[in-house]
TetR/AcrR family transcriptional regulator (Gemmobacter denitrificans), 438 residues
Amino acid sequence: MAGERRKFRREGEEKRRDALITAALDLISEGGQGSATVRAIADRAGVTPGLIRHYFQTKEDLTREAYRALMDRMVEDNAAVLEAAPADPAARLAAFVAAALRPPVMDPGRMGLWAGFIHQVRRDADMAAVHAETYLGYRARLEEMIAALPGPREAAAIRRLAIACNGVIDGLWLEGCALPGAFEPGELEQIGLAAVGAIVGIDLTAHHPLPPPSTEFAP
Amino acid sequence: MAGERRKFRREGEEKRRDALITAALDLISEGGQGSATVRAIADRAGVTPGLIRHYFQTKEDLTREAYRALMDRMVEDNAAVLEAAPADPAARLAAFVAAALRPPVMDPGRMGLWAGFIHQVRRDADMAAVHAETYLGYRARLEEMIAALPGPREAAAIRRLAIACNGVIDGLWLEGCALPGAFEPGELEQIGLAAVGAIVGIDLTAHHPLPPPSTEFAP
DNA sequence: CCTGCAATTATGCAAGTGTATAATTGAGGG
DNA sequence: CCCTCAATTATACACTTGCATAATTGCAGG
């Protein structure tokens, strides 16, 4: 009659760590850090809370590792897009921009995730370093792609162009995540391509699968 | 010998509500929702925790009002920039863009504030409505300014241009807030003006107080 | 000066938090 | 088959959180 002890299966360390990290990321994505309690994380990972302490010295450790995993995953996704992209520089840049402005990259959950970590990133020096590294890597990719476009450009100009393009991508991504339903399907991709194209001085809208809008940006 | 009861002054309701809301916003800005406990808020407002319940039925109420206050304040700041701006449409747009990309608008604290509310905004319908209203108002301002620029434009084109410009502003704002120190002073303003100018097809860099960079965006 | 009331403080409580530690049990090697 | 040990669960604890309620006290109006 006394409460029966819960049955369990022994799993490999890597599997359990992954499950816990994934659970933590899901919870943060949905409800912020406040929702990612040890009990909730363990529950979602199909495990009892004590196990967390067996794999991570502290909850902050788990959070730190989750952040690193998130960043790694984003960098991977990014690289995957570039691998599948065509060789033509303009088409390549277009594919990169468009990929960032549609699901699964443009997703309210990802925005929630990003927001959920900000304060911790500001406090923790390690996490701040990971953040800076990831951001600068992203920008470096953009710089490469811009440098490959036709026409000569100075290094300083390439830097500024990359920062601007990065801004457009991030900003539109943010808008799309924050107000899904405020835009037509594919609209943000179109707008992003037109804007990035205007900035670098090359028409990118032709490289988009959806039909371009009837009127161009510049009147 | 027993603990002496703390002295206090009676204040007007408005003053106390303001103090509590300001305290809550400061704390959220610094450390996220997790740092804004009733005790911490009361402490920073120079008051004991019980008083919060006297002015707000629940902590969530206080948070909701704080969010509304924040949004109102941002809209006000925005309007103030436009009032002080020159009459020439291009100069006006330039002033608007530049203002968003330097302190006090571009500030890590504001980003923290914004991030701290995201999850609550996603859950709470009232807060979501305030958010949407504020965002669309901001975009409407941009549409007006773009429509006032020389050259004819269709309404649909103006909409797309405004979304793109909004994206540039938000994205560069985000980058500057997230990685202060990664940019030279005034650099993001320059980049923002050049990018927005490229998008709307008008040179805006001339309207900036700082000397424009030696090379233009388009090669 | 006093008197009453609302603004404010003080105290208490149940629920939830992260963490420490002890008790179990699955599963591989002999 | 059993034995061992790490993986896992269970329990406990000190602390924090939001909220409720009672006890005070500043201050305006007579």
Confidence is low (pLDDT under 50) at residues 211-215 of chain B. Residues 3, 5-6, 8-11, 13, 16, 47-51, 54 of chain B lie near DNA strand C (CB under 10 Å from a C1').
